[in-house]
Amino acid sequence: MTQPTLMGRVSGRMPGLLVTALSLAADGIPPLPLRAGKAPFGNCPDCAGNACGGRPNMKSPGLCQCPGVCHAWAAATTDPAVLTSPAWMAAWRRAVCLAYHPGAAGLTVVDLDDVAAVDWARATLPATRVVETTRGEHWIYRGTMSSHNAVRPGIDIKSTMSYARYLGPGAGTVTVLPDVVRALAVKEPSAVRPAPRSVSVPARAGGGQCPHRTPAYLERGIAMAEQQITAAHSAIHATVYRTFLAVLSTHGRCGCLTDTHIARLFTAAQAKGETLRHCTDAWTNARTTLGL
Prior knowledge:
Helices cover 39% and strands 14% of the residues. It has helices at 3-11, 17-26, 80-83, 86-94, 115-124, 179-184, 189-192, 215-231, 236-251, 259-271, 276-290; strands at 31-35, 39-40, 97-100, 107-112, 129-132, 137-142, 148-152, 155-158, 164-165, 175-176. Mean pLDDT is 80; it is low at 1-11 and 188-209.
């Protein structure tokens, strides 16, 4: 079935967003619908907490066979048969706006959220295609990089593993992603390496020797925790909290953990987009849950 036939079949039911989505898909730009609040559709019950194993087009292929649109950027597709499937049609009927996955289209979006950010971009970045937004502008470059929030005041970078709202084709010619944009995502070591709170935990009752003070046991536990955080593709906040909770439940009462171990966990979490405040809150909440 050709795309024009598909567009003709669905245009009577969704003349706006879906027709635009099919046009984007034909140009190699994978779209997805957004619900109220400009948010992606949440996981269906079978996929909640990434229990399904993840979408096949996520960074690490999973086994999910979900036909719906419940994996945010990872569900975006250029397949018109998927875009017009019954499960997606249900989402299109509830959708309020349209987004796309820039990274999958080989693009990077510099999201300028206010006038000050736009002024900075005009004075600093090379010209490229510009799309006006409600409060600022999207500057679109050819090339991909990792996505980052708040690289400067009012500026986010949306490329791989992220979505950007589609607000029209914009004006100007798309140019190559410059080093100055890539540099925005490179943080100084002091910003990447957190300075976590010192964790003081009581010795075990009776003053017995800690059973976990073997370097190999502790190192294996911290390494597994780092891997669990790094491998998470959704529910990052919940994954970080659960991992902190697991580490503390094993090592929090016997004095094994040092600031170096905690810094490794915080660094892994920050590499997934968590802020130092989020890390500290998750650590504190985990300690409170365990009564430490």
